[in-house]
Fold each of these.
Amino acid sequence: MAEENEKMAAKCFKALAHPIRLRIIAVLGDKEMSVQQMAEALNLSQSNMSQHLTLLKERHALDSRREGKQVFYRVLDKKILKLIDLMQDIFCPPKK
């Protein structure tokens, strides 16, 4: 892995290393949502949500588009969802 790619991967992992940001990725899944929709779904303020979304976008985990006054976010690469699924399998196994 090239050094630049290693740095980008490490930055993305650091961004994902926060419970709220993991919840954001999980609630987005393979769909697109507005900041307001996510804030409501996760019971967070829009300002708190926006801070986390900005960090995830800067770290290449999310992409966004603007429609009027609303900003919609989506997971940039679906492989990130596979990573989140794997982490859930490891750390949140079904209770027996």
Amino acid sequence: MQNAENKMNKAIAVLQADLAAIRAGRANPAVLDKVTVEYYGVPTPVQQVGTVAVPEPRTITIQPWDASILGEIEKAILKSDIGITPSNDGKMIRLNFPPLTEERRKELVKGISKRGEECKVAIRNVRRDSLEGFKKQKKDGEITEDDLKNLETKIQKLTDKFVANIDTIIADKEKEILEV
């Protein structure tokens, strides 16, 4: 039971990390989480090679500690799929986030809903695996029929709780994106 809950928590954490990386018209440093820079031959996250700041609601600045890697950071951002063109002023890189169009907002909401459904499927797979484990224990004589029914009820309640949590997370992110 504890194992199932841990797996469900991990599924939620993955969903939240995915949603944090979606840009909603506002500058959010989490969009840079998956961007890595070649720094002395080692792929390094952007946050570890400089200071990432949000001076204005639609701007992110990256000030590297080593000015020689400005070009590398710029290339890494261009190669990534965040869809923002960096501007390099010789000391720092600025990322200006344009306001999203209505079309793009609706497209993002569809993608968010899809990710939410994928997370729900992962939660249900954990439930299925747990139920199979419980039935095997019953077959092996480790638990009684009553224990099996109680465990099935508990795992279903746990699943329902996590699915409701996913719905809340998705609704909040959709509201954030549709906000103009």
